[in-house]
Description:
Blueprint: H1 2-18, E1 25-29, H2 44-61, H3 69-86, H4 99-109, H5 130-145, H6 154-166, E2 174-176, E3 179-181, H7 183-190, E4 197-201, E5 210-213, E6 224-227, H8 230-242, E7 247-251, E8 258-259, E9 264-265, H9 289-297, E10 305-314, E11 320-325, E12 340-344, H10 345-351, E13 352-358, H11 364-369
Parallel strand pairs: 4-6, 9-12
Antiparallel strand pairs: 1-10, 2-3, 4-13, 5-6, 7-10, 7-13, 8-9, 10-11, 11-12
Helix pairs in contact: 2-4, 3-4, 3-6, 5-6
Amino acid sequence: MKKFLFFFGILLTTTLSAQEAYKFTTITDLETTPVISQGITGTCWSFSSISFLESEIIRLTGKKIDLSEMYQVRNTYPLKAENYIMRQGKAQFSEGGLAHDVMNSVEKNGLVPEEAFSGLFAGENTHNHAEMVAVLEAMLKTYVDNPGRKLSKKWRTAISGVLDAYIGENIENFTYDGKQYNPQTFLAMTNIKPADYVNMSSFTHAPFYSQFILNIPDNWSNGSFYNVPLEEMMATIDNALEKGFTVELDCDVSEKTFSSKDGVAVIPENLENNIKALQGIYPEKKITQEYRQDEFENYATTDDHLMHITGLLRDQNGTKYYKVKNSWGTDEARVANGGYVYFSEAYMRLKAISVTVHKDALPKNTANKLNL
């Protein structure tokens, strides 16, 4: 009887502990700009990447600069349209994109501050691209159908006109902090060098320590990624944060175990705990390279959203979590943690599609294997 009571006590203690509410302790919290909202748009790729660059500017110069997300969006849509038309509609055209789309745009078009190009017009205080995207899609379909039987070059002007009407005309010169700039001189002032940033992923359908074109729908521009084993991708994230570098993240947020309202993202070992684990601690699944690959290939892991990793935390059991900055605003009725979501290590291992980091943030052994 005493043995029964002893084991029952252990079981009861374990059960109560498993359901204990989260208590987080901050380990690393790197400086970044305030959480903002991408509004009713699919431009998380620009909002997260610009947030990442804003933190990089803080790291490189000590300056806090509110950069324009919509300037990069405005300059990326024409490239998406051209890709779609030149491939006769057999390509992706959507609001989505990836971090390298922003880096490519910055390299070509420079940077501008939010105050010089907000993408909003008088009386507007939030972004809503639903109508604009519907108009663009209808136009592109018409051009691909080619009713005139000979596609003219006027489509470029027409697409540009729609973007001007909904986002604004491109900017050439502006004043910031009392000085005159153009987008390229402003970029130079920030010390951002797009060539210094590395895109990394981890999948077994491509050779490790080589570059490959990540086969996801939003990679419309066919960007290349360095492929490394999962342990090295995770070590890269950890090394970056430890050394003061934040990390850009492409991930899957479609899981029921991701909740901006609860502020956590986890992978419970038992599916029955999926919802309960948003409020309390439950054992998590061990994520291997093989399981990660299987979930990617069976469409359980998809490319949904881009976010910005800015720190590390641990719960009361010592489990590691990543502090991830979202772009869904700070309304307490919709989001927790001031707009941040805490990703458990298991969630990050499984649902991180790719990351972007400064090359100096790579662990030395990984950098050597990639010849960087």
